[in-house]
UniProtKB/TrEMBL annotation:
SMART domains: RRM. It comes from Capra hircus. This is Probable RNA-binding protein 46. Essential for male and female fertility, playing a crucial role in regulating germ cell development by ensuring the proper progression of meiosis prophase I. Regulates mitotic-to-meiotic transition in spermatogenesis by forming a complex with MEIOC and YTHDC2 which recognizes and down-regulates mitotic transcripts for a successful meiotic entry. Required for normal synaptonemal complex formation during meiosis, binding meiotic cohesin subunit mRNAs containing GCCUAU/GUUCGA motifs in their 3'UTRs regions and positively regulating their translation. The keyword RNA-binding applies. Residues 61-139, 141-223, 236-308 form the RRM domain. GO terms for cellular component: cytoplasm. Interacts with YTHDC2, MEIOC, MOV10, CNOT6L, DDX4, UPF1 and PABPC1.
């Protein structure tokens, strides 16, 4: 631990020695009865707490904390986070110098406590002028496996993955949209823990691992959006998947109306999945129980409650590198895995500073590449002939969006100001000529950025959100991309 740090307990820049730091931490341990261990670049307080019996808390009980002052430690942080509930484990990421790395993970004993911590401590002023960020921590236990032979059944894939990796709990396989006897060429493998999934990924990721004579493609599956129980209790929309391509919205509505006529408000179908909106939640829940597993046009359907997504908060949350703010969150409801395969390789995430939060570490940017053989035929194409899943950035999505709606390209106007500490801050105003004379003549986000790229990306995000909410003009192809999991 460094010899001197700044004591922020009273908001003053008072120098605190390493000996004083150690004394403060020892006092905290003596007061609480928790153990503290430092290993692998992190310091763990608790895990489990004194007197704990049974397994660790389930997923959803941990929060991520960003923007922690580098000279602040557990003796100051733990009392703050204890306001939300009993801490199972507090993990503060540490530098070799003895300073913290600006972020931590706090695991509570219940999901309710974790949610309360997010509500009361996100943007909490931990020191004068210093605000921390608190959001849900994503403990991903699922891998995406691509290039699987389409004739393989779930049981075969499950057996094979158990042979080559440890900790496999389940395999999720989707039938082809056009041929229900085949899979879609990919699967999701669920592991018992994030560590087990990470070890499996490390073993499989080099790109040379083969199953059934095929080189498979491996990446993290996009994390499932957690929705609190109170919100789910209000949902009256059903997500229906594994439909035939030929099945119409009228057929779906008629089938779901059979158990109780007149209960379905409307149906929205996209490719081989649909959303069935009910007038009342009770009818939606009853229909889910009755219709799950039923056959429609020869296909056995799966029916679940659709998961609501707060569009703006999903775009603005997790800019700490844990989840990429791509266009998937622009649609109102989302489910665990959609019918399309995950794009291999992570899309580049927006830098953490867009939301003022720091990433635990620079996100690992990967791309799926294929060998370019001599003599390979190349065909010139326009970017607008592609589908939206070829674009990773909001800037490209906005350009694509305008083109698909036969609009002129968006116009970007750059503005700047100076921060209190002398930094040049930038923001873009975007004008969409096709709608400039309407209810909103321009779009400008409410945050300033320190780099040109960040400012442009944030402005494009902001514009897409408002276009979606006010005009509902997304093309079907873009909707499909938005739904991709």
């Amino acid at each position: 631990m460094s010899e001197e740090t700044v004591d922020g307990t009273n908001g003053c820049n008072k120098v605190r020695t390493g000996t004083q730091n150690e004394a403060a931490l020892l006092a905290l341990m003596e007061k609480t009865g928790y153990n503290m261990v430092q290993e692998n670049g992190q310091r763990k307080f608790g895990g489990p707490p004194p007197g704990w019996e049974g397994p660790p808390p389930p997923r959803g009980c941990e929060v991520f904390v960003g923007k922690i002052p580098r000279d602040m430690y557990e003796d100051e942080l733990v009392p703050v986070f204890e306001r939300a509930g009993k801490i199972y484990e507090f993990r503060l990421m540490m530098e070799f110098s003895g300073e913290n790395r600006g972020y931590a993970f706090v695991m509570y004993t219940t999901k309710e406590e974790a949610q309360l911590a997010i509500r009361i401590l996100n943007n909490y002023e931990i020191r004068p002028g210093k605000f921390i960020g608190v959001c849900v921590s994503l403990d991903n236990c699922r891998l995406f496996i691509g290039a699987i032979p389409k004739e393989k059944k779930k049981e075969e894939i499950l057996d094979e993955m158990k042979k080559v990796t440890e900790g496999v709990v389940d395999v999720i396989v989707y039938p082809s949209a056009t041929d229900k006897t085949k899979n879609r060429g990919f699967a999701f493998v669920e592991y018992e823990s994030h560590r087990a999934a990470a070890m499996a990924r490390r073993k499989l990721i080099p790109g040379t691992f083969q199953l059934w004579g095929h080189t498979i493609q491996v990446d993290w599956a996009d994390p499932e959006k957690e929705v609190d129980e109170e919100t789910m209790q209000r949902v009256k929309v059903l997500y229906v998947r594994n439909l035939m391509i030929s099945t119409t919205e009228e057929t779906i509505k008629a089938e779901f109306n059979k158990f109780k006529p007149g209960t379905v408000e409307r149906v929205k179908k996209l490719r081989d999945y649909a959303f069935v909106h009910f007038f009342n939640r009770e009818d939606a829940v009853a229909a889910m129980s009755v219709m799950n597993g039923k056959c429609i046009d020869g296909a056995s359907i799966e029916v679940t409650l659709a998961k609501p997504v707060n569009k703006e908060s999903t775009w603005r949350q997790h800019l700490n590198g844990q989840i990429s703010p791509s266009s998937e969150s622009l649609i109102v409801f989302a489910n665990k895995e959609e019918s399309h395969p995950k794009i291999l390789g992570k899309p580049p995430t927006l830098p953490a500073r867009l939301n003022g939060q720091h990433s635990p570490s620079p996100p690992e940017i990967e791309r799926c590449t294929y060998p370019f053989f001599p003599g390979t035929k190349l065909t010139p194409i326009s970017m607008y002939s592609l589908k939206s899943n070829h674009f990773n950035s909001a800037v490209m999505h906005l350009d694509y969006y305008c083109n698909k709606n036969n609009w002129a390209p968006p116009e970007y106007y750059l503005y700047s100001t100076t921060s209190q500490d002398g930094k040049v801050l930038l923001v873009y105003k975007i004008v969409i000529p096709a709608i400039a004379n309407g209810s909103q003549s321009y779009f400008m986000p409410d945050k300033l950025c320190t780099t040109l790229e960040d400012a442009k990306e944030l402005a494009a995000q902001f514009t897409l959100l408002h276009l979606d909410r006010e005009h509902s003009l997304f093309s079907l192809d873009l909707c499909r991309r938005i739904w991709r999991k």
